[in-house]
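Per reviewer request, we include the raw input and output of the structure prediction for the construct analysed in the revised manuscript.
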Amino acid sequence: MSITTSQLASPALAAFVAEAQSRSRNQPDPADCVLALAPLMLHLIDQADEFLAPRHYRASSDGYTRNLVYEAADKSLSLYVLVWLPGQWTPVHDHGSWGVVGVLEGVLEERSYVRLSPDRGADEEIDLARGGIVLLQRGAVTSFVPNPDHIHVTGVPAERPRAVSLHLYGRSMSNFNIYDVPARTRRRIEVAHNES
């Protein structure tokens, strides 16, 4: 379900969406785009209480939960709240888009992978090496770009409390590539979310 900027109930969220749309259109290079958007996300996470409702914090014991906050009618932007209960992780994946993430609660852990195989278009014979780890606490903002691939796994170890994060993507994030590291393959999957 797409929500127009005029339908956004919160002035803080409406202003963020309008400015994010403007900046993303004016910065076609993904690296320049996230550079322009990261300060907006830093400001937005401080205003989250003004526009997030209990429905945005829905969680499931089955896995991390994606709660849609906003999707542009032209699918050029989408904003989600992701809720990670202890022990919940994404699969190893990439996004095929730029993105900016702000942490609202807890500590979100990101474990990176580096693609060693030269053919980025291949879905087989993919060699990945584990990279670094980033621990993102409340108030932290991070970003990524699609080229080179931003391959990672994100979540919360079982011994930590839940984490909640706000994710802005440069497209409708209804699918992404997941990687089977031992099998050296990747495939595109559809990903579900809760409508808000």
